[in-house]
Design a protein that fits this description.
- This protein has 2 helices and 2 strands; from the N terminus they run H-E-E-H.
- By secondary structure, the chain is mainly alpha-helical.
- A two-stranded antiparallel sheet has the order 1-2.
- A hairpin with a 2-residue loop joins strand 1 and strand 2.
- Helix 1 packs antiparallel against helix 2.
- The chain is rod-shaped and about 55 Å long.
- The model has no long low-confidence stretch (mean pLDDT 95).
């Protein structure tokens, strides 16, 4: 379970960061939409993915601290 949480956290964090970076570049170039999605919506999805990654790491840390007691 530890390795799964670690990899899920890493993938969610990197994916969210990549999505936020893409949105930032597109927004700075003057675009408001990517396909049929507003860039603000995609930015929120990227932030949600990074938060999910943080929650996976938090769950991993608490699981490890419980096992060490």
């Amino acid at each position: 379970m530890d390795k799964q949480l670690l990899w899920i956290g890493r993938l969610a964090g990197v994916g969210g960061l990549a999505l936020c970076a893409l949105v930032a570049v597109l927004r700075l170039s003057g675009h408001y939409f990517l396909g049929s999605f507003q860039l603000v919506t995609l930015f929120q999805a990227g932030m949600a993915a990074m938060i999910a990654g943080c929650l996976c790491f938090l769950a991993l840390l608490t699981e490890r601290s419980k096992a060490g007691r």
